[in-house]
Amino acid sequence: MKRFIGLVSLGILAITLSACSVTPKKYNPHESVGPQVHKTITGIDAGAGIMASTQKALSGYGLKQQDWQLQTSSTAAMCSQLEKSIRYKQPIVVTAWQPHWMFKKYPIKFLKDPKGIYGKSEQIDTVARKGFQKDNPGAYKFFQQFKWNPSMMGDVMYANFKGADPQKTAKKFIKEHPKEVAKWTAGVPDGNGKQVRMTYVTWDDAIASTNVTAQILRDKGYKVTMTAMEAQPEWSSIARGSADVTTAAWMPVTSGPLYAKFKDKVEVVGTNCPGARVGLAVPKYMKNVNSIEDLKK
Ligand code: PBE
């Protein structure tokens, strides 16, 4: 009898467990996509420009009116959600940007944005406080000359994503790119301990560019501090003059609202990475979804 009860409860346990582990449905190309993703776009942290742009896109494309919503998360949580969905070929719509390793790691595609809400093309700019050039012409000259590309930046970001220490990755990048570093530091005088206060948000792109530029300046004898903060305080600290510079302003659209807010007190030093892109993305197996317009269907 005891043994029988034991078997029955084991059976119940097995049934319960299998019921819990039912995986959500695969993407079905014959059904409209909205209900399949619960009319939800998986986003990142609230302070990101891409979140504000996505709210605009939801209204602009009439998705808000259909009860679509944007879920706040983090880059890491969004990417792990994306990874899970891809493993089971499930539907998902995410906020996406490039350069970023997500395009290297996952088979995803940007959705067309015919209304241009995320901007026709984006670039990453270096932004400094007013007066930085006068106070530190050497470091300023370096930042004027610092210009890499999505491929170099992507390599650094991917190495960090794989678990490398960002400062070590920066040192390795410097060693492997002597020509670029020579161009960026041409005519830049020795720092002699002069201070450079960098600020950044802990987004992968900012971690990459901040560490690389900080390390080059340190090698030149500058004393560089790197302070991580949220986007809003980042911009206001540059505007106030309690920080000197950031290498991670996505312009003209993504960081546009922050730039507009502080433009009288900050200065765009130059573009450090052209060819960026921001928008929404889905896994490539979502064959019928190619434009933000398609989400409405
Ligand atoms: N990003 C990456 C950020 C900036 C860097 C595009 C997700 C954003 O503000 O949206």
Automatic annotation (TrEMBL):
It comes from the Bacteria. It is found in: Cell membrane. It comes from Fructilactobacillus myrtifloralis. This is Glycine/betaine ABC transporter. Residues 33-176, 194-297 form the ABC-type glycine betaine transport system substrate-binding domain. It holds the Pfam family OpuAC. Transmembrane segments: none annotated. Keywords: Cell membrane, Membrane, Signal, Transport. Residues 1-21 form the signal peptide.
